[in-house]
Structure of Protein Wnt:
Amino acid sequence: MKRSTLLILSITGVYSAVLHSAAWSVNNFLMTGPKAYLTFSSSVAAGAHSGMEECKFQFGWERWNCPESALQLSTHNRLRSATRETSFVHAISSAGVMYTLTRNCSLGDFDSCGCDDSRNGRVGGRGWVWGGCSDNVEFGEKVSKLFVDALETGHDTRALINLHNNEVGRLAVKDTMKRACKCHGVSGSCSIQTCWLQLAEFREVGNLLKLKYDQAHKLEMDKRRLRAGNSAESRGATAETFHHIHATELVFLEDSPDYCTRNASLGHQGTEGRECLQSGRNLSQWEKRSCRRLCTECGLRVEERRTEVVSSCNCKFHWCCTVRCEQCRTMVAKHFCTRRDPAAPNHSRQRSRAHRR
């Protein structure tokens, strides 16, 4: 019993350290666990990091832009939040850990892991059979659960929601896998193909989870039964609610706070000072409306600033074998959210009717 407790604390300590550390270093607590965990620890840290980097990309032009405080997976005063944003953080970090473990397994980084050849030899479809070296997502899923799910030691509603969203992230990795094939036959006739499954780009996992975030389901819980904590009544209410939730659906419990304004205790910086986009090549409609979303609808104004950008240019190849470039300086216009002039008319805030981000 003592060893099991120590192991759980070790795993929890590592993952918490990954989420808190700017350098994403591996916590020394892992030294108390089996040698196998030392092998996986750097991949877990890298996976959590890639998950949060994807979070920052997906929410780069949202009011909530996946700040550093989101990496803690908890709020202040020991009260863990269960908002729509928290659900995404759990899903993307869990997916990142599973994805990295699976990829490193395929690269041969682990002695205990190899290709998934469980389907090899079976007919997969007309003109092709399973073969080759499929990415071993079952391995990545198993080890990811060991590290990530160990954070949730309670049995209350929030813990169950977090575990559910962790699993949604892992399922997203599986659902985005691609089939790759190699042709066989006389003179390249490709009369039959050998196919295997491989991981998609992690950006596809992030895109899928972002869509699930937009469609996340709010759990309507009886507040009285919810306050009962880890009681039979509370567990019964939770089981009853989860009965109608699909396994691939992100869920949350609480409405999101106002991300327009700064709240230091919650770690929200607000949108004042944030950069936004107004025009440019290849911008989506969502990006083009970022100034309205981040500035205007939050009671701020858009300020244009001319900024000097230094970039490499006029690059030439010199035999042999270097590339030399010049440094070019150009002035570009950038836009930022700033406070309105106090002397200006007092315009009322326009708040989006959609969920606040």
